[in-house]
Amino acid sequence: MKLFPQTLLRWLVLCLLSCLAGLGMASDQDVTDATPDEETSAPERARRIPVITYHHHLPQDLKMAGRYRDGSVTNSVESFREQMEWLRQNGYSSLKLEEFEALIENRADPSMEKKVLITFDDGYLTTLKFCYPILKEYGFTAVVFLITGRQPALAESRFLPEKLQYIARAQMAPASDVFEWAAHTHNLHSMKLNPSRSDLLVADDGALAEDAALSLAQLGQTRHFCFPFGQYDEQVTERLTHLGFRYFYTTGKGWAQPQQGRKIMISRLNVSPRMTLAGFARLFRDDT
Ligand SMILES: [Zn+2]
């Protein structure tokens, strides 16, 4: 009850900002940050889940010295540690996929505990080499969406910071105490067939089924699928649903919304290399 006046005040501020936006007096940024989602009731907002996205990591000195200095998806290992520290200090625990499924489908009561689903796209070797030990130290788990066709069978003999290397198939089992593995296509994470459309969208039914089978042969059973480049349409989602996938990870920005049905579409929060720790913390504000 103590919070009520604050909540009321906040809504008044939000209403005022919405009015200003209507009059063209607030910037786009203000509107995006402040406008409440009118279709989401307060209890539903409480059930939304932050799903954060990472790609590639390098220690700051290696990052600044090399070709990924300005890379838009290469975060520093130091910032990753700071962010995991922030999550721990602020009482967050990470979700396993089974828990996430139950929460997103409203099959489990959301506890008061703060939850986050940590995801890594592509399955770079740096995810294993640098992020795995930090996650383990902090007691967090994460999901890695693997492009299985790029995985070497055995571990690379040498770490080459100037190259994009991938987690080897032989490295998966020993890291499964921290990582769960999910699909990011076997060999359709490119734009070979059309310069602006992912090969996933261009593949015919046979090619799609074959790719999914190859991917699942390496991953084991998973119903979690991340769209390459964030590109998807109704048709490909439907076809992937027929192949057994159910949880679809997009690059749509926002917290994952509870939903039911054959296809569960999941928005995520990208952690950009330019993000400060304060910016990272803002991702977890309940009006994000
Ligand atoms: Zn990707």
TrEMBL record:
Query: Could you name the domain of life of the organism this protein comes from?
Result: Bacteria
Q: Which residues form the NodB homology domain?
A: 114-288
Q: What is this protein called?
A: Peptidoglycan/xylan/chitin deacetylase (PgdA/CDA1 family)
Question: Which interval of the chain is the signal sequence?
Answer: 1-26
Q: Sorted alphabetically, which keywords does the UniProt record give? A: Signal
Q: Which InterPro entries match?
A: Glyco_hydro/deAcase_b/a-brl, NODB_dom, Polysacch_Deacetylase
Organism placement in taxonomy: Bacteria, Pseudomonadati, Pseudomonadota, Betaproteobacteria, Burkholderiales
Q: Which organism is it from?
A: Herbaspirillum frisingense
